[in-house]
Amino acid sequence: xxxxxxxxxxxxxxxxxxxxxxxxxxxxxxxxxxxxxxxxxxxxxxxxxxxxxxxxxxxxxxxxxxxxxxxxxxxxxxxxxxxxxxxxxxxxxxxxxxxxxxxxxxxxxxxxxxxxxxxxxxxxxxxxxxxxxxxxxxxxxxxxxxxxxxxxxxxxxxxxxxxxxxxxxxxxxxxxxxxxxxxxxxxxxxxxxxxxxxxxxxxxxxxxxxxxxxxxxxxxxxxxxxxxxxxx
Amino acid sequence: xxxxxxxxxxxxxxxxxxxxxxxxxxxxxxxxxxxxxxxxxxxxxxxxxxxxxxxxxxxxxxxxxxxxxxxxxxxxxxxxxxxxxxxxxxxxxxxxxxxxxxxxxxxxxxxxxxxxxxxxxxxxxxxxxxxxxxxxxxxxxxxxxxxxxxxxxxxxxxxxxxxxxxxxxxxxxxxxxxxxxxxxxxxxxxxxxxxxxxxxxxxxxxxxxxxxxxxxxxxxxxxxxxxxxxxx
Amino acid sequence: xxxxxxxxxxxxxxxxxxxxxxxxxxxxxxxxxxxxxxxxxxxxxxxxxxxxxxxxxxxxxxxxxxxxxxxxxxxxxxxxxxxxxxxxxxxxxxxxxxxxxxxxxxxxxxxxxxxxxxxxxxxxxxxxxxxxxxxxxxxxxxxxxxxxxxxxxxxxxxxxxxxxxxxxxxxxxxxxxxxxxxxxxxxxxxxxxxxxxxxxxxxxxxxxxxxxxxxxxxxxxxxxxxxxxxxx
Amino acid sequence: xxxxxxxxxxxxxxxxxxxxxxxxxxxxxxxxxxxxxxxxxxxxxxxxxxxxxxxxxxxxxxxxxxxxxxxxxxxxxxxxxxxxxxxxxxxxxxxxxxxxxxxxxxxxxxxxxxxxxxxxxxxxxxxxxxxxxxxxxxxxxxxxxxxxxxxxxxxxxxxxxxxxxxxxxxxxxxxxxxxxxxxxxxxxxxxxxxxxxxxxxxxxxxxxxxxxxxxxxxxxxxxxxxxxxxxx
Amino acid sequence: xxxxxxxxxxxxxxxxxxxxxxxxxxxxxxxxxxxxxxxxxxxxxxxxxxxxxxxxxxxxxxxxxxxxxxxxxxxxxxxxxxxxxxxxxxxxxxxxxxxxxxxxxxxxxxxxxxxxxxxxxxxxxxxxxxxxxxxxxxxxxxxxxxxxxxxxxxxxxxxxxxxxxxxxxxxxxxxxxxxxxxxxxxxxxxxxxxxxxxxxxxxxxxxxxxxxxxxxxxxxxxxxxxxxxxxx
Amino acid sequence: xxxxxxxxxxxxxxxxxxxxxxxxxxxxxxxxxxxxxxxxxxxxxxxxxxxxxxxxxxxxxxxxxxxxxxxxxxxxxxxxxxxxxxxxxxxxxxxxxxxxxxxxxxxxxxxxxxxxxxxxxxxxxxxxxxxxxxxxxxxxxxxxxxxxxxxxxxxxxxxxxxxxxxxxxxxxxxxxxxxxxxxxxxxxxxxxxxxxxxxxxxxxxxxxxxxxxxxxxxxxxxxxxxxxxxxx
Amino acid sequence: xxxxxxxxxxxxxxxxxxxxxxxxxxxxxxxxxxxxxxxxxxxxxxxxxxxxxxxxxxxxxxxxxxxxxxxxxxxxxxxxxxxxxxxxxxxxxxxxxxxxxxxxxxxxxxxxxxxxxxxxxxxxxxxxxxxxxxxxxxxxxxxxxxxxxxxxxxxxxxxxxxxxxxxxxxxxxxxxxxxxxxxxxxxxxxxxxxxxxxxxxxxxxxxxxxxxxxxxxxxxxxxxxxxxxxxx
Amino acid sequence: xxxxxxxxxxxxxxxxxxxxxxxxxxxxxxxxxxxxxxxxxxxxxxxxxxxxxxxxxxxxxxxxxxxxxxxxxxxxxxxxxxxxxxxxxxxxxxxxxxxxxxxxxxxxxxxxxxxxxxxxxxxxxxxxxxxxxxxxxxxxxxxxxxxxxxxxxxxxxxxxxxxxxxxxxxxxxxxxxxxxxxxxxxxxxxxxxxxxxxxxxxxxxxxxxxxxxxxxxxxxxxxxxxxxxxxx
Lengths: 232, 232, 232, 232, 232, 232, 232, 232
Hints:
The first copy, chain A, is of the alpha/beta class. In chain A, 34% of the residues lie in helices and 18% in strands.
């Protein structure tokens, strides 16, 4: 009944092996195609599936098949099964430079949580008012990975990276106008951050930012034998 | 003897009316043309003339005609007559984000001084170490105009503008590599600065930055009758 | 009741210290978020707050909370409290190259007035008819700062700067088509203006242009002791 | 002896039919190839041939074969036979915005002359000093076609077009730095000129500008029967 | 009653001096502003006025005031008074590479006619079928100026210029998709045309192309004394 | 002795399986690295190896190890063993728009020959003189694949594709200046060619163009059972 | 009755000579123009005509005239006469990297079929899961030409080309967001593919990709006498 | 003696607090300035200092002051004190797509080692030959962070990320030509990687890539209490 082979090739087995949720990128898919994929997903409740960049029509199509799916409209994200996994590994902190960056920041936050991390959100701390960043230093310094979401000048990730020792994943957003060029300005700023410790994902890619942060903050795998910090 | 009409049309009278030095942009001119202009300039010692973007060859050509001309090779600038005018108006502070931004910053500094302003230089205060900016806050807050020179991510002007009430003139530099795109990244960052109070000049245009700061910090003209701040 | 901490962190205290109105950038915020901020603003009638880039929906949300707010739909601007402060400092002149540049020019004009400057507007004086610019020379020469708003070729700021000694803040607009590239052509023209004394803000950023002009034309601060123009 | 068929296919017959000189674009050709072409040209003294963008090495190679060829090193141009044809048709005026634009302007000037037009050069009349343009209005208004050569902001062609009724051919140059982007800024400005009557050729293409102006100012062809301006 | 000074400064006197119609660029103006300008225009029936880039709303506003205005919706153009001037000077030929280029081509055609030229249109002669261009050679060779309108690869103007001796005004259009980049590809092609004799106006600027062609094909002005082609 | 594993991993076995020569891209490699690879190649005389983009230093390094290697300096290409394989499959024709495009065209030509195709070169047939293209139609129509190499406006591939039924591989070159943008203009033109049947490779990538043409013109593989054109 | 000469010049004779269907590019044409062309097409049932980039309105206009026309809405394609020609020549395989690339892939598939090739489609085999590509290797290696359709990173064509010896036609799509820049990222990736054997057509140009593949896989023409692979 | 305050403001204390080496970016600094900084560094042998992007002249200047400094000319890197710290934390694997990417890859490798990680290098594993990547899967899967360095199409990081569960830091390089646009193509590819788990640093920024990988693979800090993976 859920023959989707004409337009998609789900690889839930690969997902199981790699250990992270499957993600269905809804943009460019018809609601009918998304519904078909949702039906295939329903057969595999042991794997968490995220539906990203889902419009209201996409969401309706998913929930017609998976009525209990979690849905955050501002982040354009659905998840099924809806339960957030219990948290493992280090802490992820997501920082949104401005109110308009919130949708992308929430996509990062929820992705990190559905990948099994404890994740928190800090809002409206742009560099125009440094004291606002500085007031969150304690929290930032407890993070194993920090996602910084910013549009316009995109200056915040470099400033944060200079203050902490954890890696910073910078997510440029298309917030802004004119010479912001739909996020290009923020993207270039972040790629040229003076402080080391900043890596960048695609413009508005909250999913990618949250995913990477969750990978960084993952608990040690048993099969990997890390060198230990020597005593002292 | 100094017939330069085949390639230039000096307008020293306009310079006198407008009240600022004449500037000779040397790039793209032959040393011979620059020497011819220098000879014409020699007839008008009452006007300060700046030679900008002067290579060593240009400088040699100028000093062959005007041996006492001031020359700062790092800023690629000459001035004649060499004496710096006595300072008038408000203070100008020039801030260089990194050591590599120094040539452009010095061009701004010297331009502001030859336009008659008291001007000071602060060096190596990039946003990767915020405490360095913060340690100069007192000086920055005394300025009537601040010129911030930065390459790479170009984030410093927006941070400075958020800390002071004077206008910030941002000068992007071509310092950096890769996605710095010869200063484009810094330029876009500055145009998108989240803090109001930032305006931008061309990449590496220390002359333009210093000139504008000097205009901003100019003493009130007698013919202009500004509204006064009311008592209290 | 006005708990906005989930999406914004108003810093009216900083506004007080820096001496300029707080600005709320509405683009990218929901009307609900803007209404929440307006409610927070209502508690602080001693600070002028500007709402910029406000759509009709944003404006409705603001006026539901602050019914007496000033609203200029063409400039997409609201202000509260609505009274314009009494004018201090030097005069600001805003010049619009064409009729289509008016919305941005009005945003600059109103911003300068709400920052406490006397500000006037000159309309439709593009370089295709030089006599139109020249007919306003007297007014332009009385300004402490001139804002020039232009789209298409963006040539006007350079022409104006060559005629006056006050600083020119150039605001490129997205007026035009084809190789105007949404304001990029005008932006580049302005950055390359041959006359010194031009600095540029973001495309369509009337708020930024008016803000900077107001800072430049600000009355001398008591704590700053400028050098005086010597007699003669 | 002059077998050049391995690398070029001269079409002097076509040149004769179309009525304009043949042009050999030297950039990218080896001096040996240029010499071979010069030898082929020598067989056809009834056709004027221009060698454009010729380096010193190219020029030496041409003059080894055609010792009496005309050579203007600043314009990187050679012509053979060297005699300028007697002038026909309307007048061409070439305007160079700055001294650094002279090489391109001279290429335009010489091209127009070798195509058989009376052509004159006006130098250093940038828009930063409008009175300089205005002082040449009489000459500009006598032209049948005006070539305006400008780098940096490229604003001059639009200003000139607003003052005259003849067509303006705009030649952007790579003069400038930073956001001039090797002539891109001037190119865009010229494409967006507010005054109608401006068309643009490639950056630094003095040859193209002069050629087009010469075509515009060509005398009426006997085979074309233009409509006559009615009496009165 | 027609006080438009708050948003426009019509300069019909300049139009009279320069000898060409006034043009009102409607894009970016409100219908109300356009109506106001139309009312001002109504006072001056001795001057032809073109309204360019007029939407249906703009057109309705114009015709409410000037009911007999000529209107070509596909070219988005209105003219008043509606009568086409009697033709003078040389012939203008407008060539449209494809059917989709017709709106821009018609704007050029009508502009040339309202400037007083005999103008004809040739349609759908792209370079993919050379015989189609070649079949119009006779007409093309009778033109004093040719306007070539093309999108996509923009190759046609260079091909036409290689076939005729009259100047070619190339008008790139935004026809195409993907790497056509809204006309940028065609624009660059035209700027790099291998055949001399091509100059370019802005993307989709049929008005500019037709205007320039009309200037080129203008009858000799009595005050200009061209050199005559010698007998023989 | 030829341990190159620290910097390269030659895969001659894969080359054998795929049936085409191995290619060593020399740019960015030190002459020492290239020499090391040449020594490894020497062990495998049954596989043709091409060294592309080889400077004089690279060529010297190769020939120190493989003294009999074929070397075409203008194409910056070496081949070893030097013998050209006997020709199989269909004919390849390489067309160079101008003399300056010859180095890239020769790289394509030689690559096609070393891949086992009969390949011929046609030179200097730009669209500015259509009769030159048309005079080669017979040869072009005999080709199984045509490589068209062109810089500047890049218009030739679209014209050729409209004349023949074989596929056209377009190779843009960096020949040109100004708005040619190092080959970008030609690249965009080719991507937007109006005639179907044009595909594009990287700027200056003669190797890629020749390789693809050779693949297209390859003889039928025995394991592939093509459908046959029915009789009649 | 079908006089379309005012806006189009169908060249069905050329189509017959070249041996491929005529294609009508509907974008930018009015439904009325498309209907007129359809009526002209109806007179020539011996030629297959494709209508590409047809909106629902275009399709309705075509089917009003040609009721039995084939229509694939997802590919925005119509064909008339509707019968697919019997397959000749080699096999074409079309590969779509993701579900969202399907519309473009189907346009390629149908074009190849209407040009007379056997063509098959493989879906959702992006490089993020290599085993999916590898599972189709047998089919890919039977193809005479492979069309690879991919958006986002556009990495798939290079991977496929490394696995097979047939030519790969890469079709970048505008699928993606942010720094995908409407297909520019995928386009650049494909132009820089490390494996030789990849050529690229315009973004979203499924028609061009399918057309080229069909040309490559065409049966040998009787007039061309290819060299035969020698026995062994 | 080592007064460098005129051009630099070393912050070794901050380095100590953050726990990573200080880095001196040499590009744009004079050898004299670098020597001055080296002298200041000499006072602080407890902090590792890296000198990046050091030309031969820079290296000579450093070693005149710090004769025992480690120097890798291909990576343009120096380190002092020269001893590599003992390895802690997880393993870092650096992958270079091609031989030409080696200098950047070595910069990443050495940076990771000087930050205290065990780091290994894999060379020449581009996607054109997938089996080469696949042959290193075991090593890649043992890494806590993988740095993938690639120019041209930049496709490798996305392929690697699809095969492992550790985060991938992608470093685009300027290797390539034409439409590689100095690394822009690779940068865009990486930002659009279809597989999640890829973040990008600046073009040629091996230092940044190695630094970030070292941060990711850092041993758990005692003050951070990560959630533990539950048993089973």
